[in-house]
């Protein structure tokens, strides 16, 4: 016979103490339930990170990292899309007198997809293992090759790799790159790609610093020595610049072009972007010619892409805590706008609403946006969201890929 159940004098649930037969699950049955939950979690985890990619080879998985447009021999374009396929999580470690929180990853890897933009069909998929969290990988198309420059982090060594643009096969790994230059024989400690100046800054494990120039494939002592080589180039070129209308802090930007010796434009681009002196003085000082493209003002505009044909600017429709972004493409030969993409045609996450979320401000979001163009394809990319493709001639939206 079971003993009676009695309670101490308390009206609260927490104050009750039960005597007699225990309620709830038994020790071993609870362990069984917990074990079953753990097993289900592991199965779900394995299915997401291993089974699904294998069962769906033509779909993209992972978090978007970067992309590059590659022209084909047929005069069309392919997209190389890079994603982070790792299992990332936040881990808190406690020790006496200290608590640290940081991001960790299991099964650290990237997926490289070669995609046909016409139908978003995956033509090739490649897995690349890593040792630690993947922080930054630059991608560029140069000399019929796709270069991938991986920034060092934790146990990840810096990487410099090239791939055949047609087949996707690796043609050079980091060891191959190092073997070309005796000065790098100790191995790479750091690598940084300068997008604006198109060179690699390298640091070796024995304390050397060197600069690799893509134009001639040579190694230079430093950027100053590289500049001496580049100054020998007397060719004339034209670049687009977005400059303040009145003073260096003005949010009102206007588009101009600067034409002159290539080396002068490269050396003084930063100064020209903050154009605040008399144009005649600027032209005489740098031996260049300034041309204004049109009368339009681009509020808080950022020039995300320019080449010999066009400039692509993303800017705000109005100032304030709530605003939308627009994207315009300007023909540099005529100064006329070719097209403008309206806010509802771009990512919702590009809208600015500081009243709802401080991190949606212009300051926090501008570095997450990039624009690339090759042939008749313009690609807008937004970090952690995906990419959109637009027709270069008309601005018509061709596709959207959430990654």
Using brief descriptors, characterize the structure shown.
single chain; 403 residues; alpha+beta; Thrombin, subunit H; seven-stranded antiparallel beta sheet; four-stranded antiparallel beta sheet; 17% helix; 43% strand
Structure in words:
The structure is a single chain. The protein is an alpha+beta fold. Among the domains are: 234-292, no CATH class; 307-403, Thrombin, subunit H (Beta Barrel), CATH 2.40.10. The protein has six helices and 27 strands. The longest helix has 29 residues, at 27-55. The radius of gyration is 28 Å and the shape is globular. The chain starts with 26 loop residues before the first helix and ends with a strand.
Identify the CATH architecture of the domain at 307-403: Beta Barrel
Number of strands: 27
Distance between the termini: 64 Å
CATH class of the domain at 307-403: Mainly Beta
Beta-strand percentage?
35-45%
Q: What number is the mean pLDDT?
A: 85
What's the Cα radius of gyration? Answer: 28 Å
Class inferred from helices and paired strands: alpha+beta
Largest sheet: 7 strands, antiparallel
In percent, how helical is the residue content? 10-25%
Q: Please name the CATH topology of the domain at 307-403.
A: Thrombin, subunit H
* Outline type: globular
Spans where pLDDT lies below 50 across 5 or more residues: 5-24
Distinct helical segment count: 6
């Amino acid at each position: 016979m079971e003993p009676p159940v009695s309670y101490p004098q308390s009206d609260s649930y927490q104050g009750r103490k039960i005597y007699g037969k225990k309620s709830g699950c038994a020790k071993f049955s609870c362990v069984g339930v917990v074990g079953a939950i753990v097993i289900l979690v592991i199965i779900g985890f394995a299915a997401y990170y291993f089974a699904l990619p294998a069962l769906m080879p033509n779909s993209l998985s992972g978090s978007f990292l970067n992309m590059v447009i590659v022209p084909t021999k047929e005069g069309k374009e392919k997209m190389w899309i890079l994603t982070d396929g790792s299992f990332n999580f936040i881990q808190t470690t406690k020790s006496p007198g200290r608590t640290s929180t940081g991001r960790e990853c299991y099964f650290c890897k990237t997926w490289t997809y070669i995609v046909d933009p016409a139908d978003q069909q995956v033509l090739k998929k490649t897995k690349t293992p890593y040792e630690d969290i993947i922080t930054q990988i630059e991608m560029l198309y140069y000399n019929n090759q796709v270069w991938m420059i991986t920034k060092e982090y934790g146990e990840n060594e810096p990487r410099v790799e090239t791939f055949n643009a047609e087949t996707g096969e690796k043609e050079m790994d980091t060891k191959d790159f190092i073997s070309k230059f005796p000065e790098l024989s100790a191995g790479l400690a750091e690598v940084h790609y300068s997008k604006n100046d198109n060179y690699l800054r390298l640091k070796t494990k024995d304390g050397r610093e060197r600069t690799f120039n893509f134009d001639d494939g040579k190694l230079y002592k430093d950027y100053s020595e590289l500049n001496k080589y580049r100054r020998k180039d007397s060719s004339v070129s034209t670049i687009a610049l977005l400059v303040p209308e009145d003073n260096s802090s003005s949010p009102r930007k206007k588009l101009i072009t600067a034409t002159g010796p290539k080396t002068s434009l490269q050396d003084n681009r930063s100064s020209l972007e903050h154009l605040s002196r008399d144009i005649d003085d600027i032209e005489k000082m740098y031996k260049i010619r300034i041309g204004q493209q049109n009368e339009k003002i681009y509020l808080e505009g950022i020039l995300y892409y320019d080449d010999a044909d066009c400039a692509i600017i993303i800017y705000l429709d109005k100032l304030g805590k709530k605003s939308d972004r627009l994207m315009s493409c300007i023909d540099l030969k005529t100064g006329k706008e070719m097209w403008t993409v309206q806010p509802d045609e771009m990512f919702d996450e590009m809208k600015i609403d500081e009243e709802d979320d401080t991190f949606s401000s212009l300051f926090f979001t501008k570095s997450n946006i990039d624009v690339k163009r090759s042939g008749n394809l313009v690609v807008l990319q937004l970090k952690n969201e995906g990419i959109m493709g637009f027709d270069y001639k008309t601005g018509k939206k061709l596709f959207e890929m959430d990654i």
